[in-house]
Amino acid sequence: MRAVVFEKFGEVPTIQTVPDPEPALGGVVIKVEATGLCRSDWHGWMGHDDGIRLPHVPGHELAGVVVAAGSQVTRWKTGERVTVPFAVGCGRCFECSSGNHQVCEHQTQPGFTAWGSFAEYVAIDHADTNLVRLPDEMEFATAASLGCRFVTSFRAIVDQGRVTPGEWVAVHGCGGVGLSAIMIASAIGANVIAIDLTDEKLDFASKIGAVATINAAKTPNVVKAVKQITNGGAHMSMDALGHPSTSFNSIANLRRRGRHVQVGLMLGDHARPQVPMDKVIAFELEILGSHGMQAYRYQAMMEMIRTGKLKPELLVGKRISLDEAPAALMAMGGFEGIGIGVVTKF
Ligand SMILES: [Zn+2]
Ligand SMILES: [Zn+2]
C-alpha cells in the first residue's frame, strides 16, 4: 500500500510503498476513505510523543470501510462503513470496564502507538469495543473530522464540562477544537463567547453560534472582557488552543464554582503552565482534562448530527490527496486556517 512515512523526527516525510497491514485476532483492517490533518500529527512528527517508534506512518482521524476482520471479531464484517475514536480502548482494564475507554490503561492510538491512517489501509485493535458505524448519509470526510477534535469537544462540553442551557461558556482558541466546541455548546443552549487572535475565525465562530467574540490581539485584558460580557465570569471555559496564556485566562475568567476544561495539548516547555491556584480554592473552581470520547458515546452526538442540531460538515476545510499530505503535515506547526483539512484521495 501507499503511505506517508517518516524515518526521522522533523525530517521531510515521503510517500512509500509498504506492506499492507494484517488484522489482529480482535482487530480489523480499514480501507481509509478519509483522514483528517491534526496538530497532534505535527507534534508526533516533531518527536514530542514518546510512544512513536520509527519509521512511522501518522494519521488518527479516519473513516473508511472494513476490508478484513480477525477471527475473534463478532460485531463487524467486511464492507461496513466505520470510524473510530483516536484513543482505542482494550475493553478489559479497570477504566474500560467502568466505561472510560478514552483513558484506557492499555490504549492504542493509530498514528502514535502504531501506524496510522495517512495510508491506503490501517489496522485497528479491539474492533468490537471501538468501531462506530457511520450513518448512510454521512460523508467519509465529515466522519473523519469527528474522530479527534469534534468528539473531544463533545466530551469536553457535555460530559466533562457539564454545560447546561443558559450558562456562559468561554472558548479560548478557534481552531478545529474550538469551533467544534462553540457549535456543540451553542446547540445545547449555552451562551458562547469565542476568543481568538483573528477576526476571520471570530466571524466564522459567530456564524456557527457564538453570541459574543473577543479578539485577544486587540483586547488588553481578556479575563476582564469575559467577566464584563458574562456579568461576573463564565460558568464553563475551555482552552482549545493549548498555551500557558490561554490556559491561565480560561481558569481566571471563571465565575465562582466554574469549570475549566483543558483540551489543547500542552507539550514540551508548555507542559507545566501557571495555575491561579488561589482562585481555584477561593472560588471552588474545577480543573478538568478531556481526552477523546468512548465509542459508545458517539450515539448521542450522531443523533444531534442526524437531526441537524450539529453540522460537523461545516468544519471540513480543504480536501487534499495523500501526495499533498507530507507538505500539509509539516505546515501544521503554524496557525491553522478555518476548518479541518482532510485527505480524501489515496
Ligand atoms: Zn482498557
Ligand atoms: Zn487529532
Automatic annotation (TrEMBL):
The keyword Protease does not apply. Keywords: Metal-binding, Oxidoreductase, Zinc. This is Alcohol dehydrogenase. Its cofactor is Zn(2+). It comes from Mesorhizobium ventifaucium. Residues 10-343 form the Enoyl reductase (ER) domain. InterPro entries: ADH-like_C, ADH-like_N, ADH_Zn_CS, ER, GroES-like_sf, NAD(P)-bd_dom_sf, Zn_alcohol_dh. Belongs to the zinc-containing alcohol dehydrogenase family. It comes from the Bacteria. The keyword NAD does not apply.
